[in-house]
Specification:
By secondary structure, the protein is of the alpha/beta class. The protein is built from nine helices and eight strands.
């Protein structure tokens, strides 16, 4: 068994059955992803649209690709034909762009609403008050090619566990607040990464995004 396969097996053992593992493969080469694929894993996360498209073309088509990074509206067109889930929908303009491109492809695109909870201005995401007002105006009734599956967020980058837990509990509160607007398909709470996913799971996460624990530290010279 390869090192990557062993790492996946280890992480899976630490997760409840109802939590989906997204293997974050951004900046890692196709060969590393294929090792994970050969170990039986099928869900991978990328943060750059160009890199995502290159890997989609190079790898088996039964892979479920997730877009987890900040997505610019001018990059939506390239990933909409095949992406399984967009985690990082952080504005009305982006949602409307995804709807337009999804309609052109005649497919329904699943997405998560990214909420800003970290005490860092550099992180993106909706303010929950603004998002609640937007959702309450029923805009998604006019976007038939979108399926809002839940919420995504990133905790403050700190070693203080109580701060991280506070952020994750706030994300869970936001998830619970928004769920009645969307119904039973709104069932995904994507939070937790390699360094903090155990806390996220304790706080109610149903999807974790784990990269370095599986593939090792990132090589930022790699582009796919």
């Amino acid at each position: 068994m390869s090192e990557i396969a062993c790492n996946i097996a280890f992480v899976r053992k630490t997760l409840p059955e109802n939590v989906t593992l997204v293997a974050v493969s951004k900046t890692h080469p196709v060969e590393a992803i294929r090792e994970a694929y050969d170990a039986g894993h099928r869900v991978f996360g990328e943060s750059r649209p160009q890199e995502l498209c290159e890997k989609y073309e190079a790898l088996p088509k039964d892979i479920e690709w997730h877009m987890i990074g900040h997505l610019q509206t001018n990059k939506v067109k390239s990933i909409v034909p095949f992406v399984a889930l967009i985690h990082s929908v952080d504005s009305a303009r982006l949602a409307e762009t995804i709807q337009r491109e999804a309609a052109r492809c005649d497919r329904t695109v699943e997405m998560l609403l990214e909420i800003h909870v970290a005490r860092e201005e550099t992180k993106t995401g909706w303010d929950i008050g603004e998002l609640k007002n937007y959702v309450g105006s029923t805009p998604f009734a006019r976007m038939p090619n979108l399926c809002v599956r839940g919420v995504m967020g990133i905790a403050t980058n700190t070693d203080v566990g109580k701060v991280v837990e506070r952020d994750f509990r706030e994300l869970k509160r936001c998830f619970d607040l928004l769920q009645p607007y969307f119904g039973p398909r709104f069932n995904t709470l994507s939070m937790g990464m390699s360094h903090d996913y155990p806390i996220a799971v304790e706080c109610g996460s149903t999807m974790v995004r784990v990269g370095s624990l599986i593939f090792g530290e990132r090589d930022y010279t790699q582009r796919g």
